[in-house]
């Protein structure tokens, strides 16, 4: 963990949970894993208060803990989970994402889970003012929810049924995940505990044999670690099937995606389960949003909408796990069919007029065949959909899906419309596949209208490269970018070779190379020709190490983020008087009567300034995610 | 570093020019390092921020709102200034400050919600739930206590920062920006007001008052805990505040402070 990241995390915690928490976090980050008494000694705060603070931090998952059971004397160690601290920045975006997808009620649930850290479902539902058993006085405490949402003009959550329905949906889509004990422990401790257990199971093994068994044990440990997380990947983990008698009649949930039979069953939550917000899921969503934005700037608005829809299907089918190396998709790549996209895509989108018809499309068709190793009959039909013979085939497709009856030319207008829509969607997807970045890849299979996969890993790599080059361009200019690209392409190069390849004089590139090296974007390897290691008799090879430049850049990002937060603090300091007046309980809501004109103007100015600074923070956050998480 | 790169390059160039062989002469460096003092504030083109998009503004509004909620919640703490470091003019506890300002919490308030104790190390259980203090019978007390505790649920503020319009259809001109901003600020503050009011009027009122009372008690405790100096300046001022009623003065003349 880098020093600047430590600073940023400390500031973030101070900004969110106050000074006490930030001091404990600072100590934990600075000294690493510590026991309670060590923390107390270092932070110089009474033990009672440190304990209270630790409770807060653990509740919010910002601190992990593990109790070692060594010889009857238990020692608990605390460790900071700094990536979770960083997630504090995403709260706004998380709430907004849910709001856009599931409406305000679900967003309010997620927002509350964020506030609470984790919570037992039964407690949570009860806290909304309604017990699961529907007490008569259930609605009363809920008033605050009602009137507050009335103020902003949204429908309130009125019943426990509604809440649990929202929670079930959120759980199935993995926005909320059950917390288990091992989530509260550092991974390494969990692994050690499992290893201990596995080793103990191999009874009667001498020390000599143990070394032999090491490999087998390692495998077993890895397997068990895996099983810890795969359990959570099950779509309906923590849910139980609802019996039909309860509801009177089984209602069918209108669920999109996935052809599993279980979709039509009702699920309800196990009240004893503890839930929290799944940050990895949101990281995946943010990544997809970024990809969509890229497509929009490269191809066009409508295509990006189609792409967004495709990615949304994709994200329902995969679970991403957060690891040291960013998000890792679990399992095999999911395939999304054009039909899936068509089923959920809004009908209002004008798919037809957004692609230039005629020449580009047919051109694309022939071009396409190189890209996606042929064999895609469906594809070619889509490209020139005017022909009658093509209609014939496509009709058959639709028929197969809908009824399975042979009635080729008796399509209703709705089916016709649907068919056209699908063809158009396919055109857009083809456009994406043809792009040199290959935003989608055609899946070879017998899927109707074709299936598609997205190689997010590769795309993110491209995204990173693009961003990196942009940053270098901005900072060091075009020549430096050119040099970096050459070095990346050719591997290790000395200055002469570099100058030759770049078609520039050595004199001209030297300054650029120096600047790039200084900022950690390129690195030098020295290869002496003689044993004396004279500088004059040494080769200096420049090379590009993605990991190292990534670190250098992340460090810069963290630093500028801390500076922005500090700037906000400073601005707040400058305006203390005004802000404390505006926050007075009697002034709140009556600003216009009680504040002077100047104060109102100043208040607005402060709000705007903070907004701009926070906005910049979010923009850097985007880059941090790009380089660290995706 | 740049310097070293240059040196290597100098040599390479040399070999390219002259033919092989010959004892290697130290060549002149073609990069002349400048060791003189650099300008303190060199010219620098300040980058300008692109205007925030409507989506970004919504994200920011939600972020601020969320932070605000945490700040008004039980977990946010503000450490007071150290004894003797207060500003004698501004940090005096006044009547209006006591009455109208949000109470600052010095320690997080933990006993307001139920916990999942298994997720916490045993040594913290006592802190979270006083019934875990050594020597108490656990199971009975917990069951008695659990009923009372509720998670603190707050409603979501869904006001949009740009005057309620979802998309960026309207121009983000700077002139009406201010107007919008003002509106949104007010809207935001208004909604907070609502929440406050409801908090008092709803069925939970008693419970909350209880909490409030506990809270105050707790804070007093802390004063005793942390600052057991002989001379308690704050206490002194507090008492003075009680005797002489500054309240009216401050309430009336408060405006002058902020101008």
UniProtKB/TrEMBL annotation, chain A:
Pfam families named in the record: HTH_9, RNA_pol_Rpc82, RPC3_helical, WHD_POLR3C
Sorted UniProt keywords: Coiled coil, DNA-directed RNA polymerase, Nucleus, Transcription
Start and end residues of each RNA polymerase III subunit RPC82-related helix-turn-helix domain: 7-64
Bias-annotated ranges (Acidic residues): 380-391
GO biological process, one term: DNA-templated transcription
GO cellular component terms given for this protein: RNA polymerase III complex
Region: Disordered, residue numbers: 232-263, 366-391
Limits of the DNA-directed RNA polymerase III subunit RPC3 winged-helix domain: 468-543
Domain RNA polymerase III Rpc82 C -terminal: 167-461
GO MF annotations, alphabetized: single-stranded DNA binding
Positions in coiled-coil regions: 408-435
Subcellular compartments: Nucleus
Matching PANTHER family: DNA-DIRECTED RNA POLYMERASE III SUBUNIT RPC3, RNA POLYMERASE III DNA DIRECTED -RELATED
Known function: DNA-dependent RNA polymerase catalyzes the transcription of DNA into RNA using the four ribonucleoside triphosphates as substrates. Specific core component of RNA polymerase III which synthesizes small RNAs, such as 5S rRNA and tRNAs.
Subunit-structure text: Component of the RNA polymerase III (Pol III) complex consisting of 17 subunits.
Family to which this protein belongs: Belongs to the RNA polymerase beta chain family.
Record's protein name: DNA-directed RNA polymerase III subunit RPC3
Native species: Orbilia ellipsospora
From TrEMBL, chain B:
Single GO biological process annotation from the record: transcription by RNA polymerase III
Transmembrane segments: none
UniProt entry keywords in alphabetical sequence: Nucleus
Comp. bias intervals (Gly residues): 1-20
Subcellular location: Nucleus
Leader sequence residues: none
Positions of the UniProt region annotated as Disordered: 1-32, 158-259
Nucleus recorded as keyword: yes
Bias-annotated ranges (Acidic residues): 195-251
Keyword Membrane applies: no
One Gene Ontology term, aspect cellular component: RNA polymerase III complex
Entry-linked InterPro entries: RNA_pol_III_Rpc31 (IPR024661)
Superkingdom: Eukaryota
Subunit description: Component of the RNA polymerase III (Pol III) complex.
Function: DNA-dependent RNA polymerase catalyzes the transcription of DNA into RNA using the four ribonucleoside triphosphates as substrates. Specific peripheric component of RNA polymerase III which synthesizes small RNAs, such as 5S rRNA and tRNAs.
Family label: Belongs to the eukaryotic RPC7 RNA polymerase subunit family.
Protein name as catalogued: DNA-directed RNA polymerase III subunit
Organism: Orbilia ellipsospora
